[in-house]
Write a structure and sequence with these properties.
alpha/beta, Rossmann fold, 3 helices, 36% strand, binds inosinic acid, binds magnesium ion
Length: 176
């Protein structure tokens, strides 16, 4: 199997969209401090670019999670590979994600973090694939609505590759 990379959103397009998201967040959190929670590893590039454009006092923490088991939030289980370093109690938080697919991981992560008594907890994702949703999640800030295709770049990987592409691309898989 061989992959071909097709650019979908150029670096300029991604950066322009991040400018717009940051403007929106700057308006919504005026006069407040903001705690960004980046989900490793995919959201790292997006999280950094977004944070550089924010004008309020910003703190950041990261966690690494994956989900397994069935798709319902109540019975689904979350595998925490790396937890947050700091408490989020009383903080205004935004979870920063690379892409929402089934929504299973994010819904469970949101439920877990909500239980830690943040002052508020919103979700910001670079990409969303709403057609693929199994567990509903309310997303507050969406960069791009993605078609149901496998995408890479700007942090997103295929078998740990392509995260470093400065643009967002779809992957075409070819039999050899
Ligand atoms: P889900 O929403 O629980 O299904 O899982 C979402 C996670 O799966 C994302 O955070 C990504 O790490 C990964 N993922 C889903 N779709 C893609 C894709 O098109 N490209 C790369 N990673 C993806
Ligand atoms: Mg992810």
């Amino acid at each position: 199997m061989r992959e071909i990379v097709h650019e979908m959103y150029s670096e300029e397009q991604v950066e322009e969209r991040i400018d717009q998201l940051a403007e929106e967040i700057n308006r919504d959190y005026q006069g407040k401090s903001l705690h960004l929670i980046g989900l490793l590893k995919g959201s790292v590039f997006f999280c950094c670019e977004l944070s550089k454009r924010l004008t309020m006092p910003v703190t950041m923490d990261f966690m690494s999670v994956s989900s397994y088991g069935d798709s319902t939030v109540s019975s689904g289980r979350l595998n925490i590979k790396k937890d947050l370093d700091e408490s989020i109690e009383g903080l205004d938080c935004i979870i920063v994600e690379d892409i929402i697919d089934s929504g299973n991981t994010l819904a469970r992560t949101q439920q877990l973090l909500q239980g830690r008594q943040p002052s508020s907890l919103k979700i910001c994702t670079l990409l969303d694939k709403p057609e693929r949703r199994e567990t509903p999640v309310e997303v507050d800030y969406v960069g791009f609505t993605s078609p149901d295709e496998f995408v890479v770049g700007y942090g997103l990987d295929y078998a740990q590759k392509y995260r470093n592409l400065p643009y967002i691309a779809t992957l075409e898989f070819l039999e050899e």
